Amino acid sequence: MKAALVTDLEKVSIQEVDEPKIRDDEVLIKVKTVGVCGSDLHLFRGTHAFRKPPAILGHEVAGNVVEIGKNVKTVKIGDRVTVEPQYGCGVCEYCQQGLVNLCSTKVVPGTAKWIGVFVEYFNAPEITVHKLNDEVSYKMGTMIEPLAVAVRALRKSTVKEKDCLVILGSGTIGLLTLVVAKQMGYKQVVCTDTAEFNRDMALKHGATLAINPLESDIVDVIKKLTNGRGADLALVAAGANNIVDQATACVRKRGEVGIIAMITEKIPFYSYQIVINELTMYGAMTYETKDFKEAADMINNGLDLSDFITQTMDLEHTQEGLDVLSQKKEHVVKVMIEL
Length: 339
Prior knowledge:
2 domains, six-stranded parallel beta sheet, globular, 16 strands, 11 helices, seven-stranded mixed beta sheet
């Protein structure tokens, strides 16, 4: 079968690989659509924390079940599905708490133990498979995975007030976080981004304000909007050098800062804001299964994210898709690959 691999720095190759053989607790999925994610860019650029070339791309997927293992009970041939792209050991302290995302031996696609999803056929354990309603497109099914990241980022916050949220960075995850925040009842959501297209997209989907941080003082904007109080929560969804300091300066006393972005390089950070204002900071690593299910329920119940799919191309043009996202040669939020 065909597969798209990163073979070198910013180099994608379409190659023939063996079709996976399923275990008794797995299903085989004929892949219909896959999404290009920011973490794929890390692999593409050579900055991923643990995935190195050569590696098959991807973890956002939707398709049809074409084969099931003999022990599979909840999924049948013909089901339209997406996959939660992680599973843990099942016995460590984190797996026992449902925190598969923190299992030190968890398995993810595109590694030695699990093939990536930029392939014609993809195997997945039954426990990771989530069904799609008949009226949900494969593209929307593929969007469940990044939507789950946004759900997780907001569910981790313990601040009860929802008067003002700041989202620093309005790429795919930032925009999806905006959508989830509106669903959760945040009254005012301020988004930032240097790209006008992304800011316009944020306003279209309910942002109170969309600010260019290179042209406006985001802290000043937030203080004026909240009568000097500050936001309840700020979420970091981009990796600029000053972005954590922006976040801590934006929030009110005893507010919270959540970091979603996979910032793999050291950036400066002024910790005094944390102490003087008794702020809480947290990280959000992918999602728990319950977050993924919540995202799947949102899509299955009709949430439409088609605006965010800005490019669609076939597997042979995967290199072009990565280039578009990496170099921002076009207006881009989510690049989707159809097989």
